[in-house]
Amino acid sequence: MRSLPLPLALTARLSPVVVLAVAGWALTSGPAATANSGPAQGSPTSAGDSAAPAASSAAPAAKTYDAAPAPCTGMPVATVKSLVPGAKTAGKEIPSTDSRLRRTCSWNALKGYDYRWLDVSYEVAASDEAAAKEYEQRVGEKSGGGAVPGLGDGGYSVVNLTTEDKQQTREGVVLAHVANALVVITYSGSDFENKKAPATAEINKGAIKAAKDAVAALRGGAK
Q1: From CA 6, how far away is CA 8, in angstroms rounded?
Q2: pTM (2 decimals)?
């Protein structure tokens, strides 16, 4: 089989160093507790003095998930084989600046002339409200997609086609909001023989399948 060069965009994705700062997002903690100081120890107080106000603090936001789950082990082997033929089913976890809050696993393979790439990411926010806000912001930045019913507390899917050096690549992205976590799926494909991309339906269906499996894995034990 003849050797075919990868387009620049896909070659860059195969680099061992993956920058996650682009997909990263700020996670904020709840407000710090505020305590009022009482009289110094041993200070006399008169009967007429008013009592010092009671100490108050803001209750921490309830969190369903404290940490991101292992992203590689949660994806069923059958799904990996189906979506990324020829890939090592164990996947490769991408280094993160904070693996407790963000974890990503990646699979990619070139089988014959068909290239497929799958990324599965988990991101944990400080609260359900923070995750919902981030989800809505990201959905707003991706036009042309549509809702995915039954995918966590909210699901959204969008597919785009890009062309570089006459080589087409079709990429699907699925976002899912589950309590205080986000699940982000990226699935793409190219055919290096005819320079065409897989059909929109194929990429969209594959990305949604991976998202459903990732959400199931999150709910199954990432607490």
Answers
A1: 6
A2: 0.74
